[in-house]
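Nucleoside deaminase structure dump, as promised
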Amino acid sequence: MNKYMKIAVEEAFTGMRKGDGGPFGAVIVKDGEIIAQAHNEVIKTNDPTMHAEINAIRQATKKLGRFDLSDCEIYSSCEPCPMCFAAIHWAKMKSLYFGASREDAADIGFDDQYIYDVINKTADHEQVHTRIIDCDHCNEPFKEWKQKEDKTQY
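structure tokens r here:
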């Protein structure tokens, strides 16, 4: 077994057995060194975003002092959900390794298919009703950002 994936799985067991959250773990590696390792803490924190990958990304960015993790790779015990998959992209990581599939997760009650359906605009109903309002006012910060000369693009 891959040594980093083994640690991700150990994190999944640790978090699950402590009652912190679901059975998910993640490890971020840079140049062969573990930068961060984490597990799901949704139940512990009552925060639905505290997935293993998000927690590991937060640890890694804090440790490295930057938001760009393009020189890192992530090992996840399970295929990341849409939120975590997006965060991995936003962190600019180039490599993702995962073990269990989204179908495996769905089999134990962690089914993200509805979110995929909403993203693909194939959902038969909407849980969140969205409406666009106040576009002109809300675009004002964008106009200023576009003109800002000392911005840090990410």
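The CA atoms of residues 30 and 72 lie 5 Å apart.
lmk if u need the other ones
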